[in-house]
Amino acid sequence: MLQFPVHSVDSAPEASKATLAQAGKAFGFVPNLLGVLASAPAAAQAYFTLSGIFNTTSLSDIERQIVLLTVSRENGCDYCLAAHTAGATMAKVPSAVLNAFKAGQPLPDARLDALHRMVQVMVSKRGRPDAEDLDAFLAAGYSSAQLLEIIVGIALKTISNYTNHVADTPLDAPFKPFAWAPATPADALCPSCVDR
Fold it and tell me: What is the CATH number of domain 60-193?
């Protein structure tokens, strides 16, 4: 069976030490996800760098958290659902929006719901939205550039979601109060496939 150690700055390969040190400064601790990614310095650096890039998009803090949560739910990643529920709370995502998201219901904010649905479509259709999907996204006030920014968020979460799946990354203590999982196994694998 494959083993995925959770590295600290001290135990990490030399080429990962700087990335983990930067993560520690940014987050106040080194998340276990980055500790796992540190075994492959390129993976740790790619995730940390892409995270910084995603934070420079035109999407608001709340919108970015909706993207990250939606990808993580579509991919069934409990670690990232907890981590980004914590992030969404810090970003002041309204509790009604978070509660609807957790329940698998339409988000009570029409613009955020359009974003959420577009991210679901992009993941479930492997980046092939149809004209109706695009029209609904644009009608909510989003742009073609923001669709490309969503793809950056999908790439970011694909790295973390897949890493957490293969490594069974242990949840960090600061994220444990935010842990939750979709209600049913089918919902966890494909919430956009479940009638709402």
Answer: 1.20.1290.10
